[in-house]
Amino acid sequence: MKAQTAILLVLLSCLSGKAQRTNELYSTEDKVDYGGSFGALASHDVLSDGTIPRERLPARDFPEGNWGPAVNGCQVSLRFAKQVYAPGETITAILLLRNVTNHTLLYPMVSGSCLRFDLQIVTRAGEPLKEKPFRGNSDDWRAYLEPGWQHKYLEGVNGCYDLTNGAYFVRLATRVAEERPLDPEEQRSRSAHEQDIVDRCKRGEITEQEASAALSLLLKDVRFPAYEWIAIKSADVPIRIEGQPDSGKP
After folding, report:
1. What DSSP line would sit under 42-79, residue for residue?
2. In a domain, 94, yes or no
3. Same domain for 203 and 158?
4. Residue 9 within a domain
């Protein structure tokens, strides 16, 4: 009996080890802008040749992701296809926001601005570059990030910054909030607020559209009540611009 118990414990240990390694692979959801609204483009966990993308691996096994430290259960990555670019060449930043904990997270982004996230660019001398002025309406958005998932974004750098010949450091900076359940007092307060919105709509003080928008915002606040934003960032990533601008002539 003791021998059988020992064998069973060994088997459970092996299975536990395998499960742990499997859980360390993060599912990726590509994000794309559909005319100003954000939606999922695709979820790819396996490449066409059957291999697993390296970006799904833990940060320690994917150092080229230039991961920052995990903060409040979130970890962010910034990388480029290469380090050296010619003047005027398209520069695309590859961003990953990963949930490394077991609860839902929330992060902000901006729709309609030059960049959806804050890409901080400084010269080798430490002088920050100013983002080009943006003409248009800018709206704040919030996205939910579930446990075991990471969201992937592509951000074009050229349209937002003037990069001339020289060396630069780029960093992704954002914020993250943690899900927290409502206590009884908060639940009563939210319910009263919800009823007040419904009553105001019935009295004609606000339109049905305004009431729907208010209730939608309230639902978000219910899921993340009194949340506290915590700053998070990637590692600094070096890039260099060198060479002569393309004149467009053969």
Report:
1. EE-SS-TTSPPPGGGS-GGG-GGG-----BTTEEEEEE
2. yes
3. no
4. no
Q: Which residue has the higher pLDDT, 60 or 248?
A: 60
- Residues in CB range of 128: below 8 A, 6 or more apart: 120, 121, 122
CB 167 within 8 A of CB 91: no
Instruction: Report the range of poorest mean pLDDT among 37-41, 119-123, 151-155, 202-206.
Output: 37-41
112-151 pLDDT tens trace: 557 778 889 999 999 999 888 765 555 567 788 899 999 9
Q: For the whole model, what pTM was predicted?
A: 0.69
**DSSP per-residue string spanning 102-132:** SS-EEEEEEESSS-SSEEEEEETTSPBPPPP
What is the domain extent for residue 212? 181-223
The predicted-structure confidence for 53-76, as pLDDT tens digits, reads as follows 899 999 999 999 999 999 989 999
Q: What is the dihedral of CA 34, 37, 41, 43, to 10 degrees?
A: 180
Question: Residue-wise over 112-144: b if at least 16 C-beta within 10 A, else e?
Answer: ebbbbbebebeeeeeeebebeeeeeeeeeeebe
